[in-house]
Amino acid sequence: VTLNAMVLAGLVIALGLIIDDVVVDVEHIVRRLRQNHHEAHPKSTERVILEASAEMRGVLFFATLVTLLAILPVFFMYGTAGAVFQPLALSYVLAVLAALVVALTVTPVLSLFLLSNGHLEGRESPLLSSLQRGYERLLTSTVQSPGLVYVTAVVLVIGALAILPALRQKPMLPTFRESYLTVQLKGAPATSQGEMNRIVSRMSSELRGIPGVINVGANVGRAVLGDQVVGINSAELWVSIDPDANYDGTVAAVEETVYGYPGMGRVVQTYIQETLSPSKISTSDPYTVRVYGEDNKVLVSEAQKVEQVLAGISGVVDSHALLPIEEPTLEIKVDLAAAQQYGVRPGDVRRAAATLLSGLNVGSLFEEQKVFDVVVWGAPETRQNISDIRNLLIDTPGGGQVRLGDVAEVSVASSPAVIQREAISPYIDIGFDIRGRDVAVVLSDINKAMLSYAFPLEYHAEIQR
């Protein structure tokens, strides 16, 4: 739908130029026919139309070229803005080129059929004559004294460069008055589900009390088959706004309420803004080198080394590794010697710990066409802290039990909150830009550097384009 809308928008924008090409060409042909009519030895109508069309050919070509150059920068936009506006620019260019072809081919033929025997004389509007005389005087003075034109051009260029930083801060996409808002919350890594539920419940209650808000829904974490790569420390709220309410005031009140919760990442936006915004886990850098590997610690180390290699290549600027956000995670490493002493197999230790801490699905319960998972899990009071977890009892083959802390090392370690994968292989991106040198030459140098770099076994890097 968005693509079709932008294509139609490009055609609408080009409509003025399409009409102008025909009008200018026909108007010039009519003027030449009138002049020829008053000549002592008039030429044939076919020759007059042909000569008039030939006179306009260069004018129309260069005028079209100027309009196409004005929209050329759109084709170099990237990210969401490029994906949205490039179809508009493409349809605009095709429409303008088609109008040029019609003006140079079809218009002279139709002029020959319609103007050969037509009445060409007419009374010109006094206003039009006055405007024409004023334009001619201004054009004459400008051509004779071009200094003012040069000064104006320099002032306009300086003004454009001055406002360029402000334009970069403005969103490229328009904001629509949608009746639904999405509120995205992100707590600190390892924030518990109970704490997120408490915050979301309290925020939902406050939002429902805002005049103009009809209803509020919420979701904490991610569904089992959900498409969002988020942890339990993330939440999303959906706020419905009454169509008859003061839209700006209601949105401002929602933002004030949401931003009144410190210590969390908070984003309030409409559904279209959320849909068209860049992915949270992807880079918006112009160029990217992707490093692949299995072990996260080695992968982070290699990504940092590759970042340094890129920084040393001439033409590469703003290189930075997009390292994953880490959060504290419970880590259990089996002590093989201790496990052997108690007669416990390492796999049994891992399965027992996983069952007690994460739960084990052992079946399903069917009731009134609904399916409920049956999960075996440790009691909450037995897994409140590290000491409790170390005291969890593991069954031994002889019928006895042994503490988890006696056969395994239990600790809290940092691990990535989200592991990004491509074709099941984890990766880390290094984003960068290219300035001061030819892009193809710089990318060739980067490719040579990656081929000569000594990666560990089963680790490699690729340039993403």
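The record above closes out task 2.4. Task 2.5 opens with a second protein, given below.
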Amino acid sequence: MRSFEESLQLYAQLTIQEGIGLARGQELLVFAETDQTQFVRLIAKEAYRAGAKNVEVLWRDSEMIRARYREGSDEAISYSPNWLHDGVVRALQANAARLGIVSGDPELLREFPAERVTLASTAHSKATKGVSKLISAMAINWCVIGAASPEWAVRVFPNLSSAEGTAKLWEAIFLTSRVLEIDPIEAWTKHSEVLEARVVLLDEMRMDALHFTGPGTDLRVGLISDHLWAGGRGIAKNGIRCSPNIPTEEVFTMPHRLRVDGFVSSTKPLSLRGQVVDGIRVEFKDGKVVQASASTGEDSLQRLLATDEGASRLGEVALVPNSGKVAATGVLFLNTLYDENAASHIALGASYSENLAGVDDLTEEERLHKGSNSSLIHVDWMIGSADVNVNGIHADGSTSPLMRSGEWA
């Protein structure tokens, strides 16, 4: 048994060595909540031990965010500092690595009107479009991880005290990240190799579509002809291997934005822009959402879909087994980083260009012609469970079983 401090230290090491794969001489940009100073200091120490030439932290504070929504004018809500995000783009273009640490309250903005939240989110998405393009193209080594906080823990474990809930959430984070294994680095490497082998197998199958069936779901997701699967670690265009998500249990690829048909129901709540959306049911025709509803947070969902033309089409489809470490915890994290790795999912909005073969030789128009999707948003929501089956459909109409009752077939 390790102490909490020992586990936290190992988590920091795993993040820098396997998550970021930080190279000697690189700069590291860290995005974190102000309640994570202890952990961020450990991250900085590990980064400098790995040879970082600079670690720069951009802090996010929950109370300042609430103050903006509560006291700010419409002008303040709809403003996003382009000068700041342009600076981040320049740093990434100069080969800085990026680490995001998520720990905030999943319902941070629950008291505010969805219209106000959408206004701010849209402005932020426009201002950070350059950053999003670099990340989706794997231009640099990057990673997103989680860190427990009392505000998050009380949502996940409402029947526990703040201290007990936070400790339990940290335990779940360590477990899903394989920090509790005898050798976390070795355990993460072996897990990544399993995902990488599955990617190779799925690429070899060259499927034309995926068919999801289950309670409230009968959805056919057409894939672009030049689709590539991804999952686990990846090689960024700067030549550095990284694990973009810790934890991760998914393998994912690119849907054709015009070839999605049928209906689908969510199997887990979605924390969307600081507000929870649950009971989602969506119908697609020719790739576009033609009907959408939610039992909770429907206004937020409808505003998300209205962001732009691509927001009502899919940019990602991912397969995740129930037997993965995230699902095995039985915890509803109310955080997409974790919940998307507990169930198969789809994402509304922008495609990841790494899922399209030869993407660097294509113009934006050629990418769209092949079936990729463009949007200011990319929002994953969960559609898999023990009651959902998935078949692969080949170009000749034959099928291959991929998942049965939420497990790989």
